Amino acid sequence: MEKHVWGQTPDGEDVVVYELTGTNGMRASVMNYGANLLTLFVPDKNRDCKDIVLGYEHLEDYFTNDAFFGCSVVPCGNRIGDAKFTLNGKTYELDKNDGVNNLHSGFHPLCRRIWDVDAVSENSITFSYKKKDMDMGFPGNATYTVTYTLTEDRELRLDYTGLSDADTIFNPTNHSYFNLAGHDAGLSAMEQKIWINASRFTQTDDASIPDGVLLDVAGTPMDFTTPKPMAPEMDDAYEQLAWAGGYDHNFVLDKPLGQMGIAASFYDPASGRKMEVYTDLPGMQLYGGNYINEGLVGKGGCTYGKRYGVAFETQYFPNAINIPSFPQPLEKAGETVKTSTVYKFTTV
Length: 348
Prior knowledge:
It comes from Roseburia lenta. The chain is an all-beta fold.
């Protein structure tokens, strides 16, 4: 595996980039800073490989990374209402970094820290991080791992593990933004077609916090059970869309809990690239990049704009820890928890 030092963190730690090589021209790069995905090259129908994930040109931009480009979000992705939860009779207070709520684990998440490298090969790498008790407000001394693998079946596979010495929350996700035309295509991803294996989604308040109600997608702009682009309805007056400024919602996947199954597909007719998302988790957040800053400078100096990429964040439902009727993102003391997500690529 090839690797190189990209630079240093403000604390003087080396940031190392690792290059993964797969089959059929696929390749990816990841870094020990945050265990974050930097590039993902995938061939189109003419075997032309392009990088299809958004990212920054300069390392320094990843030190803030308000858009969470490529992030491994651990231990808890998405939102926790009122930035607190109760577990085993004790209430834990978290960072209020999204209004009065907690988003992606707080102000100093693990996607902005250096991880250790446990194992490498030409097509795979495993990162690990040892979190101390109450770091970010979450109980337990815990060890987390994230493994990226480019498989022979044209997949990018992400495997996560968590092991804690106290009961805690474990709800990891990846926050990469995909544009199947290429990150540098100079256009949004809103015309690319999405299908989601979900007949329901989680209703939210105006701060995107689920309240426990599951709504049917049928007859609403949230219905992706037939493939369609986001563009025609993303600015619809439908209240759930208006509150979020577009698509930024958790879908309740129509598959057995805990079993690997298909969550969604994403298709770009022009390039022929198609991506399928598989997960063993019960939900997936569809986020259309509503808050990507216009004029943001990305890789290669290209300019991104609002909705230039789409995130497919596999997960337990947002705020699940505060809603007992939802599947719970619990990690029991002394028990290793595992979860996996796969992005599989074909051409059509």
